[in-house]
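Protein record

Derive tokens from sequence
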Amino acid sequence: MTIDPRIAAVTERIRRRSVDTRRAYLEMIDAARARGPSRGRLSCANLAHGFAACGPEDKAALKGGVTPNLGIVTAYNDMLSAHHPYEHYPEVIRRVAREVGGTAQVAGGVPAMCDGVTQGRPGMDLSLFSRDVIAQATAIALSHDMFDAAVCLGICDKIVPGLLIGSLAFGQLPVVFVPGGPMPTGIPNKKKAEVRERYAAGEATREELLEVESASYHSPGTCTFYGTANSNQVMLEAMGLQLPGSSFVNPGTPLRSALDAEAVRQAFAITALGENYRPIGHLVDERAIVNAVVALLTTGGSTNHTIHWVAVARAAGILIDWDDFDEIAAATPLLARVYPNGEADVNHFEAAGGTVFVLRELLDAGLLHDIPSIVGSMRDYTRDPKLAEGGRVRWVDGARESADRDVVRPASDPFEHHGGLRVLRGNLGRSLAKISAVKPQHRRVHAPAVVIDDPQQLRDLHKQRALPDDFIAVLRYQGPTANGMPEQHSLTPLLGMLQNQGRHVALVTDGRMSGASGKVPSAIHLTPEAASGGPIGRVRSGDMILLDTEAGVLEVEVDAAEWERREIAPDSTPTALDIGRVLFGGNRRLAGSAEEGALSISVDAVAPDHPRDDRTPSEATYDMGPGNPAAADFEVRDQ
């Protein structure tokens, strides 16, 4: 089907905008790849160090001819429920590698912090920049010139974007992402939210709250609400970087194990040593980035990705901005209602049709580019994985009808005709609002400002009964430069409780909100931020503000002359506890704006004028062999 002209226009605009940066990126990775498999550039001493710890079988293979070697980059730790299942994956990957005639090594580990643990705590100040640390750690892992492809074991918030950014720095390598799957369904998310709001009102005990939280987050696997972690998975499938239908298969099940093994086989199938070379740097083009944004918006996914995917795109030499998100949202119907923009969790979403159903609807409606993927094309992502005899996976055509129209719907009958994200413009700058989870009657708030520089100040005002009936909380000094842009989800129970009382409340902030937030209208990621002299610093308590998410307006109603005379108010936040924060001072100083991806590292490619081969003639022992496709011009071939 012909691509929707609105999606095509945005894609073409991104392509034109990115001509120079994309060319530099492709020249860089193609120069790295043109010299052949990496181990051909290693001296004997280098190579001996590289396989010294391997067993005899793997060492003999690596010492001999052209044996594909897979690098494993893992975010395993056993504090994060989503990453706990990865503990034994390296053993499985090495076993499958040997079965297909290859080898595999853990190239390195990357940190993986949990926003659920640090929410509202000082540690949240490290959260956003952990993405850039993960990107750098991924690059370190892949820097040893030992690998023909990589698998990335990561699933949660900043981890997947960081792994993507780091992998794209080695874009000549094929890279396959392997999800771990969600935990089984616990208590309904609505019940959890209700207890949180009663606790905020002083009507529930800590013991009651802990009991309900423990019943919600209860086992290995990702949290089951549709936040940043699970949005990652849908976006990766829409980009063709992980196996079709693999996102929401629970850990510890036979199908999960079969999919994990199949992902390893596929990574070996697409190296430059075979006939089907598919490097990540060529797969991730402007069409793949647009696909990811469409998938995010059609499912009501996390606003965090309006920052992360700007950074991911830039790492591939592609330049996108919030206007692109805004225009894609206007063309993209809302096809899913998963908590927080519905009652279902991701297990219910999967049972109703899930990613396979949604991607087929988008393709058939011309809203998704049919691009090359790690397995073939996007049409492969309209097929469901099933367990076959012998423990392998077979893919069958996905259901043509939704199994629950309260959870997923066809493109011909969406929940809404808009993807649920708006760019807000006005005299406070540019910000974003996610409205897919906000009821229509709450999407416009006209109320006085209550200015705070710390979320605790709002809770204190509530306890003192000092808050107006209707108000817009203006939370400043929460941007990347100020304190690392922590999420402000800890305000959601209080604001949600006040909204339930019939009061008109909203939030305006230069910080982030959690991917789990939604019911309270919020203008987030406001740029420029207060710490960079942004006009949010001029707002005073009592100023009337209009927040209209339907019209895309955020305005403070102050006389123009008075507005110009005002100075930026200083940050009144108490000095932060260290907890490692001092180590990220350089990141805060270097960070770009939210709309620029809040990057605190450089990702811009510099194409080499003359690709270098570092081998000396006596050490060029790794012969690619005649007719090897790695020696030919690159071309992605659809299966």
